[in-house]
Amino acid sequence: MPLQDESEEDKELQDELRVLVDKVKDSDVKLISPALEMLKFIIRTSTTSMTSVPKPLKYLSPYYGTFKEAYENIKDVKVKKQCADIISVLAMGPTGGDTAREKRECLRYCLLGTMTNIGDWGHEYIRQLEAEIVEQWSVCARSANVLLPLIKDIIEFDCKHHAEIQACDMLMEIDRLELLSEHIDNSTYQRICLYLASCVKFVENIEATKILRLVTDQYIRFGENTKALITAIQLNERQLVNKIFSDCKDPIVLRQMAFIAARQLFPVELDAQVTDREEILNILGNSNLNSHFQTLARELDIMDPKSPEEVYKSWLEPVPLRPAVLGENMDSARQNLAASFVNGFVNAGFGCDKLITPEGGNRWIYRNKDHGMLSATASLGLLHLWDVDGGLTPIDKYLYTNDEHIKAGALLALGIVNCRIRNDCDPALALLADFVTNTNPTLQTGAVFGLGLAYAGTNRPDVLCLLLPAVENAVGAESLAVASLACGLVSVGTCNADVSSAILSKLVDSRDSEALKSSYMRLVVLGLGMCYMGCKDGTEATNAALEVFAEPFKTISQCLLKMCAYAGTGDVLIIQELLHNVSERIVLPEEKPSKLPQPTESKTAPLKEKDKRKGKREWDAGAAQAAAALAVASVAIGEETGTEMCQRILGHMGRYGDLAVRRAMPLAVALTSVSRPHLPIIDVLTKYAHDSDEEVSCNAIFCLGIIGAGTNNARLSAGLRQLAVFHMRNPSQLFMVRLAQGLTHLGKGTLTISPLHTDRQLLDPCSMAGLLIPLVSLLDMHALILGRSHYLLYALAAAMHPRWLLTLDETLQPISVSVRVGQAVDTVGKAGTPKTIAGIHTHSTPVLLAAGERAELATDQYEQLCPTLDGICILKKKPE
C-alpha cells in the first residue's frame, strides 16, 4: 500500500513493477521472459543509501509468494531459471521474511537459477548466500559438489571487490581454505595473509596448522621470505625453515632472516653452498649481540656503572626511617644478597659495576654467607652477559678458590655469560663438563644449572649426554630439580623422548616416598614440561603417565604440563579446564570433608609454617589450584582479548579464592603483563603488596619487578620506594622490594624479559622457560627463593634481551635513520591503508621500544627488509 509521503517517482515505480508482476503471472510465455529481464534490470540498477533496502525490493516484497507460484507454473527451463534468480534475490534479508531464511530459499533458488554474474546483485546478496552456504554445509555435507561451483564464483567476486575477509571467513567455516589460493594475487595477498594469520589463535590446532601453511606458501609465492620465515617458526617446522633459507638467493635478505631466527633461538641448518655462510652462522649464533649492545649503550651514554644504592634512592625515603640502614642492621646477609642481585640486574651486559669488578671486588662476595656467596659470584655472569670473549677471564680466577660456594657461583656465572650465544669453541662445555659428575652437590648444582642456561634451546646431544646421567643419578630432591630444569632448558620445545623418559622414571620411582612432597618436585615436573613447550597435543602420552600419582601431585603435574605445552596459544578450551581446576579444591585422603563451615586458610597457615620449621612435610591441598592459576596466565598471554579476560578472572580469584590461589594470583597477573607496566596492573599488585599474608605480599612485590622489568618506570619506582618504607621491619618483603627495584632498572632500562617479540607475533620458548622457573619457585618461596635456592632467579638470564630497534646497512654496520614510534594499532581487516601506530614520536635509531610499541621508517631513502621494525633490522638504500 503506497505511503502518504511517497513521491511521484515512487508511485510510477510501483505502477511499473505491478504491471511487470502481472505479466509474470500471465499465461503468455512470450511476455514472461521480457518482464523478468526488465525486473532484473530495475533491481540491479537501483541505488539506495547504506542503511535502507532498495526500493524495488521493498515494493516487490508483497509479491514474493506470487513469484514462487509463477515459478511452479512456468514450463520453459530458461525462463524458469530467470524467475528463480528473481526469487533468490527477493528471499534476501527482510524481503523474504523469516520463513525464507529458515528454509535457506535465497541459496535454493540461486542454485535453481542461471548462476551467472551473481555479483551483479550486490554485496548484500553475496553476504546472504555465504551465510546460507555455511548453514547448508553444516547440515548436509553431501551437497558439497552442488555448492562448489557457486562457492568458487563467490570467492572470485569477493577477491575482486575488496571483500577478501568475507571469503576467508566462509572458507574457514566450511573447511575448504585451499580454494582460496588460486584467487590470491599481488594486490590482495598481504591483506588476506594478515587476516588469516590473526585468526590462528582462535581456531583449533589442526586448522591453525592448515592456515599457517597456506599463509607461508603465499608469502613464498610472492617473494616475502622474511614473513614466510615468521609463519614457519610459528608452525615450528624446521624443515620448512631450512627450505626457506636454502631457496632464498638474496644475501641481504638471508642475513635479515638469520637475525629473526637468532632472536627466537630457532635452529637452522644452512646449505654448504650458501653465500657468506660463516657470517650468517655468526648471526644465528648471536655472536655480535654483546658488541651491538655496547654500541647501543654508548649511543645512549649509559656506560657508567650504577650501584645498588643509586637504584634504591634511599635518600628520597623519609629521613628518620632510613629503611635501608635498618634493614642492613636487622638482616645484613639478606640485604647484601639482595644488593648482589640488584647489582647484577642493573649492570647486566655492561661488563662493569661498583661492587665486584673493581680491584678487591672479592671482598663483596665475602660479605655474603655460605649459599649467598654462590649467587653473589654468579652475578658476574650477568655483568658480562653475552660477552663470551671478554667475560670468561674475570670469572675464571674464582674457579681456583677453596670455597665451594664461590666456585659453584663461578661455574653458574660461566653458564650465564654463554646464555643465548652459540660459540664454535664451546667454552661453557669445556669448563663445566668436569664438574657435572662432581661428588660435591654444591659444585654439581652450579655446573649443571650453568650448562642448562648456556645451551638453552640447542637440544644438543653431547650436552644432554652429560645432563641426563645427572638426572638419573640425582640423590636429593634439589639435585634432581636442578638437573631436570637444565635438561628442560636445553631441550625446550623439542619433545625430546630421552629427557622426558629420564625425568618421568625418576618421578615414578619417588611416587611413594616423602620426597614427592618437596617443593623441588614441582620444579622437576616443570623441567619435564619445558621439554614440551608450545607442543600442544604432543603431551598426551606424558599426561597419561602422570595419572599414576596420587592427588594433589597428579593435578599439580598435569597443570604444569599444560602450562608449558599450551604457553601463549590462547586455547580457550584449555583455559576452561584449568579454571575448573582452580575452582575445585582437592580433598586429601587424610582430610574428611565436614558439613560444618571450614575454618579459613589464614587461621591454619601458621600451623603449617610451624610444621615446616619442625621438618615435617605435609601436602598443601591448595597447591594444585595455585599451579592451575599460573597456568591460566601462561596459556592466555600473546592474545590481547584473552589476556584482558584472564586479568579480569584473576581479579575475582584474588577476592574470592582460597589462600593458595591468592598467593599465586600476583604471579599470574605479572605473567600476563611482563615488562609492560600498565597502571591498572600496577595498582592491583601494589594493593596486594600490602596484604597481611606474607607470601601474598612477597609475590606481589616481586611481580611489580616482573611487570616493570627494564622499563625504568618512574611511577613504579616511586611505589617500590614507598613499599621499602612500609616493609622496613619485614626482612622477606624488604628483600623482594630490592629485587623488584633491580628488575625495574634491568640493564639500566635497556633490557626486557618479555617472551613476545617481532610485533608480538612470536613467543620465544627459551624466554618463557626462563620466566616460569622463578615464578613456579615462588609458589613456595620460603622453601626455594627465600631459602637456599635463590640462584634460580638467574634463570631470568634466558629471558633477557635488549628492547631495541637497531638499524644496520647492507654491510651490517650501524646506521642512524629517523623512525616514528608509537602505540601499535591493530589494522587487521580494516579498509584502505590505515595508520599502524598512534601517539607518534620521531626518533633517530637506535631507539628503545616499550612493549606494545611499534616503529615505522620516517625516511624515503631506505626500504626495510624486516616485516616489523623491532630488534635488529637491515635497511637497503633505495636507488636515487
TrEMBL record:
<dbReference type="GO" id="GO:0043161">
    <property type="term" value="P:proteasome-mediated ubiquitin-dependent protein catabolic process"/>
</dbReference>
<dbReference type="GO" id="GO:0042176">
    <property type="term" value="P:regulation of protein catabolic process"/>
</dbReference>
<keyword id="KW-0677">Repeat</keyword>
<dbReference type="InterPro" id="IPR016643">
    <property type="entry name" value="26S_Psome_Rpn1"/>
</dbReference>
<dbReference type="GO" id="GO:0034515">
    <property type="term" value="C:proteasome storage granule"/>
</dbReference>
<comment type="subunit">
    <text>Component of the 19S proteasome regulatory particle complex. The 26S proteasome consists of a 20S core particle (CP) and two 19S regulatory subunits (RP).</text>
</comment>
<feature type="domain" description="RPN1 N-terminal">
    <location>
        <begin position="17"/>
        <end position="317"/>
    </location>
</feature>
<dbReference type="InterPro" id="IPR040892">
    <property type="entry name" value="RPN1_N"/>
</dbReference>
<dbReference type="Pfam" id="PF18051">
    <property type="entry name" value="RPN1_C"/>
</dbReference>
<feature type="compositionally biased region" description="Basic and acidic residues">
    <location>
        <begin position="606"/>
        <end position="618"/>
    </location>
</feature>
<protein>
    <recommendedName>
        <fullName>26S proteasome non-ATPase regulatory subunit 2</fullName>
    </recommendedName>
</protein>
<feature type="region of interest" description="Disordered">
    <location>
        <begin position="590"/>
        <end position="618"/>
    </location>
</feature>
<dbReference type="Pfam" id="PF17781">
    <property type="entry name" value="RPN1_RPN2_N"/>
</dbReference>
<dbReference type="GO" id="GO:0005634">
    <property type="term" value="C:nucleus"/>
</dbReference>
<dbReference type="InterPro" id="IPR041433">
    <property type="entry name" value="RPN1_C"/>
</dbReference>
<feature type="domain" description="26S proteasome non-ATPase regulatory subunit RPN1 C-terminal">
    <location>
        <begin position="828"/>
        <end position="880"/>
    </location>
</feature>
<dbReference type="InterPro" id="IPR016024">
    <property type="entry name" value="ARM-type_fold"/>
</dbReference>
<dbReference type="GO" id="GO:0008540">
    <property type="term" value="C:proteasome regulatory particle, base subcomplex"/>
</dbReference>
<comment type="similarity">
    <text>Belongs to the proteasome subunit S2 family.</text>
</comment>
<dbReference type="InterPro" id="IPR011989">
    <property type="entry name" value="ARM-like"/>
</dbReference>
<comment type="function">
    <text>Component of the 26S proteasome, a multiprotein complex involved in the ATP-dependent degradation of ubiquitinated proteins. This complex plays a key role in the maintenance of protein homeostasis by removing misfolded or damaged proteins, which could impair cellular functions, and by removing proteins whose functions are no longer required. Therefore, the proteasome participates in numerous cellular processes, including cell cycle progression, apoptosis, or DNA damage repair.</text>
</comment>
<keyword id="KW-0647">Proteasome</keyword>
<dbReference type="GO" id="GO:0030234">
    <property type="term" value="F:enzyme regulator activity"/>
</dbReference>
